[in-house]
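User: I'm putting together notes for a lab meeting next week and I want to include a structural view of one of the chains we've been expressing. I don't have a solved structure, so I'd like a prediction I can at least talk through. The sequence is below, exactly as it appears in our construct file.
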Amino acid sequence: MKPLLLAAVLLVVPLQAQTADPVAGLTEAPAAAMASGDAQHPAIAVLPLRGQAAQAFGNPGDAIYQRVTASFFKTKRFTMIERAQLGAVLGEGKNQNTVAFDDASAVALGRQVGAKIVVIGSYSANISHTSDRLVDKKGNVTMVEAFPADVTVNLRMVSVETGHIQEVVDAKGTANEGNPAASTRVVLEDLSRKMEREVGNRFPAFGYVIKVLDPKQAVIDLGKADGIAEKDEFSVFERGEDIVHPVTGKIIKGEKRLVTEF
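Assistant: Thanks for the context. Below is the predicted structure for the 262-residue chain, given as structure tokens.
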């Protein structure tokens, strides 16, 4: 029996996905019969994030929420619960940052919308101002201003079935531009890249190598529908022959060995 080659994909593509706007404020509403995805694509609900932001940021909650949601969407590993579904049990009347979700309330909400996983967490957004006085060889003085900024997101992925935390995902975007508007834009773009990489690395795509063309090229059974894009990085594994327990008949999976990366 030939060993199978598994291709594990680490997604490092840029953020381009469009996502739903966040909603906030719990309201009483009947549970709806909603799709919960399948074993390969479990339904996931990203709940409003609590956070604090420097005044120069204004209210970045919506922008940060969209980037978090997009990072899960781009993996193609989940069935996303959209705003229309969340709206059945979440009200529109409160600011999203005033709504607190602990694990128990998040799980209860997840059951109502048919999610298998709920994502809860928080963010912090900071920006400051620096001014440096530079003097060249001729004695000319130039004042250089910068606005260092950072946005940190801390997420917990909680299983609706067990109530246990499945994964913890953290990401931090940084920027240091010459004006506040540029720094806020760049820091959110940086957060998007890092957030997507963190989520993608935790939930890689798995498929099979169909044919090896040469040492640097191979055909696999994954494509755009699986979230694969140009410049993705692959790890190829070879699995040894399974072992059958002589008494119980239980199958013990063969050892997995890294073959190559490209």
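A couple of points you could mention at the meeting. The mean pLDDT is 78. Helices lie at 61-73, 83-86, 103-113, 180-202.

User: Perfect, that's what I needed.
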